[in-house]
Amino acid sequence: MAQSTGIMLVAGGLTFGNDWLQTRTPNWRIPIATAAAAAFLNGIEKVYPKAAVGLSVIVLITAIVTPLKGKSPMETLLDVLPITK
Q1: N or C: fewer beta carbons within 10 Å in the chain?
Q2: Would you kindly state where each structural domain of the chain is located, as residue ranges?
Q3: Can you tell me the mean pLDDT for 41-48?
Q4: Cβ of 83: how many Cβ atoms within 10 Å?
């Protein structure tokens, strides 16, 4: 598996899991789009590896901090963890 593929699968898994936790129903469009994006980045990585890995890292950071349909995965994680103020 290429480097960018693993990073993209993590981003898609976080997005899928967070959406499932918030809506209580799985959105199967997310894994399909993740697989397509991972395949695309795998092809890009054969031509220009740095660009593919850089783009997948940008996608991962965006997936972690961007709220879609409620809370971002980071906000969900902060709600779940017992943090004292």
Answers
A1: C
A2: 3-80
A3: 93
A4: 7
